[in-house]
Description:
Structural class of chain A: alpha+beta
Oligomer: homodimer
CATH superfamily of chain A: Glutaredoxin
Order of helices and strands of chain A: EHEHHHHHHHEEH
Largest interface: A-B, 28 and 27 residues
Mean pLDDT of chain A: 97
CATH topology of chain A: Glutaredoxin
Largest sheet of chain A: 4 strands, mixed
Amino acid sequence: MKKLEFFFDLSSPYSYLAATQMKPMAARHGAELVWKPMVLGAVFKATGNDMPARVAHKARWMGNDLARWAEHYGVAWRWSSHFPVNAIKAMRLILVDDAKAADVTLAAFSALWADDRDITTPDELSRIAERGGLEPAAALQAIETPAIKDRLRANTDEAIARGAFGAPTMFVGDEMHWGNDRLHFVEAALRRQ
Amino acid sequence: MKKLEFFFDLSSPYSYLAATQMKPMAARHGAELVWKPMVLGAVFKATGNDMPARVAHKARWMGNDLARWAEHYGVAWRWSSHFPVNAIKAMRLILVDDAKAADVTLAAFSALWADDRDITTPDELSRIAERGGLEPAAALQAIETPAIKDRLRANTDEAIARGAFGAPTMFVGDEMHWGNDRLHFVEAALRRQ
Lengths: 193, 193
């Protein structure tokens, strides 16, 4: 079966934009879609990369560019007043139940990048869990367990080992694509696979 | 009249790829196309940005990504054995005669990024001048004059003042787009203008 692996950090706005396109893209090619949250800060540190918004001119352009992509896709987006946000607990929620990963991911992305909610609080984490189909109290306990913490670390290590340096990063087999602006190449790779 | 301003550095491979698309794009919208060579190193220094290839993982991905874009456009491309190249003299050639700017630019880009030639030598500069429709001996004298040197500096200063941080950078009016991967947004801006 074709497989599309989507590595992302919830705190990355371009990851949000790409995430809104993943389910339809995988469906068009009958591909299995694997949601792989990773800690982007650790990827930057391991590879010597840095936040694009560190360059002031780039940050200004990014605000406009992100708005243009959101309009292009027809999805809600606004700059988060909580940025840069520590999304680690929310990303662990995605790893509680693989069958719910898509719904939890999209609920968390919307909370942060469409509705400007603070995704670090227990109340908001509960709300995301619930919208994603998890039992909130159990999910909030699960994200404090070593098993779930280790899965997020393992995803991050895997991304680095496979050559990632930013987010989103998509794999079709061993072919790696970086960026919301490369979805046409991802689509071509799925077509060829 | 609609206007499309294309800021680029010859040493930037993504600038080469975008340059191959500029004339047809401008023609589709009846827009005046203005070729604006600039010194990317100075833009990086002024804005705190850096070469993408500085990050080893990104450099590896870039090699594949550039090849995919070249195939997508159907243009020749190979990694230059002369990279990073000092393209300042070749960029000054573009500024000798505005009526020849397009031809000189495309001749220089092809020499570097399709034919792997060393664009820093007097012989190759003469060849680029000739292929671009300039009288080579006069052109090679012109690029040592303060007037031409100043024009390249002025382009660079203008790009920085208008918010650029990388190459290629395209303006449609005041709307700025960065990157070969944003040509669809440039096209949309030309359509709206």
